[in-house]
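TL;DR need structure tokens for one chain.
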Amino acid sequence: MAKPMGSSGPGRGPMRGPVRKPKDAKKTVLRMLSYIGKQKWLLFLVVILICISALADVAGTYFLKPIINDYLIPLIGQKEPDLSAFIAMLCLMGGIYLAGALSSYGYNRIMLNISTRALKDVRTDLFSAMQKLPIKFFDTHAHGELMSRFTNDTDTLREIISSGIPHFISSGLSLIGVFVMMLVLSPTLTILVLFMLAIMLFVVKTIGKRSGYYFKAQQKELGRVNGYIEEMIEGQKIVKVFSREDQVKDEFEALNNSLCQTATNAHSFANILMPIMGNLSYLHYALTAAVGALLAIAGYMDVGTIGAFLQYTRSFSRPISQISQQFNSILSALAGAERIFALIDEEPEVDEGTVTLVRAHKDATGLLTETADSTNCWAWKCPTDNGSFEYVEVKGDVRLENVTFSYEENKVILQDISLYAKPGQKIAFVGSTGAGKTTITNLINRFYDVQEGSITYDGIPIKNIKKADLRHSLSMVLQDAHLFTGTVRDNIRYGRLDATDAEIEEAAKLANAHNFIMHLPKGYDTMLTGDGGNLSQGQRQLLSIARAAVADPPVLILDEATSSIDTRTEALIEKGMDKLMAGRTVFVIAHRLSTVRNSNAIMVLEHGKIIERGDHESLLADQGKYYQLYTGMFELE
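>> reply
TL;DR here they are.
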């Protein structure tokens, strides 16, 4: 089968296709707020605490005016000053600041709790969305890049939820409160503040725009690096077999250098922003002090007002400085959030099917009725125009009629394929790599849909059958056996979750896996990790066959199922495989032609077309391509 473009594997470079551009930042923030809004009461409490913290800061600063004018200046020159009122005022001022500090601690603590729950919901939605995506999506996206959505992007998202959003609210309230108090104290000096504020905002906008561009680029490069690392870890054996260590290091260095460059640019702009803002703040403070002093000398302002206003000046510039200081984390979080939401918003796999698979009871007359009891009979439940249902027994009659298919435009993989498999027949596909053998099985499973022609299952177009029900009636044994973290028993039971322990052992015996399982440290309860790395490739394949056997489907697809099993083991399981295939419609893809000799029909494919068909004896008698393959005159590639 010709793989879809963008599919990756061990020993190959990462997919370097175009990355979806980030969405609007405002829309992303609003969407993040929708996750936080699920915890309304906690969020309401956070807002109250933020208000208390901001108001305490504003109110506490105002106390400088009466303290200077009413307590400090009158005490100047007194030999025995009475400090009781002054101390009481300081205690009141300290109490206000303490209330603000406790409120600040409280809302930061609560926001950590809110952000953790929000991220849990984000990961849940992200994983759920991923389960609904078609196989084509995973064939065209590097797995490491997808993993980075769950790791790097969610980590940066935590920053903006736990600290970014509350700081924005707190800074906004502080700015409003401070601005009002500055207007009350001195409208003249407030004009100077606004002038400096305009300069600061211009600097933030100019530098922040450049920083944001590079932070978005950094997130993309980080996804590519993660994808490459994951591929190289999975394909480490292949790398070493072909001595590609130096090439792999060079490719990684190129990706890492690209990430380093974009990260350096991003953090350079982000890091210079804070010093610039700090210096502008000091300049602003100095100008305000000088102008205030001139006004005081002229008699238009008292010393207490100058002291309070100067402190407000620092309070006014501090929120802007805090926002600029957090620019790198904010931009990273926005870029990561956009990537997360882009994956959540990916078009899910469309399923327009209406026909479902149900357990059925078949009486002596052949009438089928739906039942909840466990039976050996299954039926397709087909809705009719009048609202009733028609039941069609599942037999495994699969037919392809004039099927044409391509993964990409102008690159046909299958061309005008027609074949049929009657119930219980074994149909084999042979041919060179890329001839389209696996593509046929992918179409039967509806991993992809045909562009032309039709596929029917027991006379029902498979596009009318719900995908989950269609796939429930099929079992596949792939060339690359994949095992999950869990016990041997769990991995076999994956084929049918309600299978009993006895049925699991029977399936293992059928696949000739029982003997080696019993020699494992804990038998069927032996824990497998790392895709069954503690088992041989042949043993992993035997477990995959047992998993298919326990599913007990009417149709079985074997895609190079015995390619990883030595000839001795293959001979031992041949009878078990015959039992597994008995009474089932079986599609077999094999390079080892000895495994297809007893097939009812053998299809020889070349360049997406069936060039020969027939049983083993008739194809040998024709002395065509199959004859050449079988006698070794032509080798499969």
